[in-house]
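Notes from hallway chat w/ T.B., transcribed later so I don't forget. T.B. wanted the structure written out for a chain they're using in a teaching module, and asked if we could keep both sequence and structure tokens in one place. Agreed to drop them here.
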Amino acid sequence: MVAIELNQDEFKILEDLTNDELLILNKFKEFPICKDIKDQYLLLFLFSKKFDLEKAHTLIKNNLFLREKLEISFPVVKHQVNGELAKKSSSFNIIGCRTNNGSSISYLYPSKLKPKDYTFKEYMTFLLWSQDQSAHDHSSVHRAGMTIIEDLHKISMFKHFDSRLQDFLKKNKLNDMQDIFIGRIKKIYILNPPWLLKPLLSLARTFMKNKLISRVEICKNDQIFKTVDPSQVLFEYGGTLNLTYIDYFNTLPQNF
């Protein structure tokens, strides 16, 4: 079993920033909404929008609005997360794993979790924590973006799709999830696609940009390894990394 040690007080996103990035960070800190938010978390919004100040401002405004409505703190740390929900391993990332181009790797396995078994606040707290904790990852990873490996085995629109988020977005006139959630997606690999994948992608187009949809690739496990070394991918997904998310989650400090 691979052992991964992470320090809750170490924020590698602050390391090796360019002069231009530091300059824009200082300008971003002048926005009233950014007052009292630590640099490592402001950088999450800036990297998500390639240091475009106006786009980053829209993102942080919408993100904090969601948290305020649901009474979710910023940042979220591990002890605030429902551990049972987290250990379902339906949506997660493991800090330190990389693709060949240096992007982070996130996993989605929707059929492992029925979202409505949990309150909307519990579910969103976990999703936001998954993003907030990425401040512990190096700045180079945030520049490279995020690769998602999504396994749609046994997925059901009735059991595993949570309409509460879409309802929230519609109610509050928020049209694009990329203007709410932290992270910049570079690639999405879809494994075990069901017959209803095309309807799902059509649905996704109603609240996601076409540019993002174009980054989706339906493939088999071994095709992932054209851009990702097997040692960086969990054994469950066809790689050689001998680690489970439950073991990884259990090693994280409570304030991570």
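Follow-up for T.B.: The two ends are 21 Å apart (CA to CA). Might be a good example for the class.
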